[in-house]
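TEACHING EXERCISE
Course module: macromolecular assemblies
Task: Read the component lines below, then compare them to the predicted structure of the full complex.
Student: A.B.
Group: 4
Components provided:
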Amino acid sequence: MFEIVLTLALFILTLSILISIYRLFKGPSMPDRVMALDSIGIHLISGVAILSVLFRSHAFLDIILLLGILSFIGTIAFARFIERGVVIERGNDQ
Amino acid sequence: MKTNDLILQTVTKVATFVIVLFSIHIFFAGHYTPGGGFIGGLMTSSAIILLLLAFDLKTVKAILPVNYLLLVAVGLVFAVGTGTGALFFDAPFLTHAYHYFDLPLFGHTSLHTAVLFDTGVYLVVIGVTMTIIQTIGESE
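Instructor-supplied answer key:
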């Protein structure tokens, strides 16, 4: 019973990722696509969590924090690029 | 145009310590659980990259005055030195040894020379990643 509920949750997550991918392809502006990528990252985190419960293993729990950090840094880098045109600023001399 | 980065810089000041602590944990946990020198070095360099995103290149060079090419060299010396250390004990190259010690704070702990080799990997990964990022960031 418990595994059926977890598998159902994985199916719903997959559906949600597919809707985010539609926004990724279709999104009229650049920030829409960045937000779709961020949303896909968060869905992947919950997918890893459900899979590690399903496999009865705690070997994947580090990946949750890892994906969170990488998604955060990636979204910030995209936001900097959209706002300023450069990702890393050189200095305060210009 | 003068822009204001207050929220990003404040979040970075807190999140950098969390990322560095996580990378140190994942480095030392590599013997018994998933992790190790490679992913630990990547997470440490991603903490430095977060600092680079929130501040600029000059500020981060003032915060961390590290020559990353020298860091690569020190890491390679660690890895090769751990390998040649085995030659002094009539063992083949890269033979590792371990023993159990009673440390004052940690108790009964097993110390392994593979940690020194992993430290070399950690330093090389940080050095190579940060050299690539800084070189690309500085070029016009």
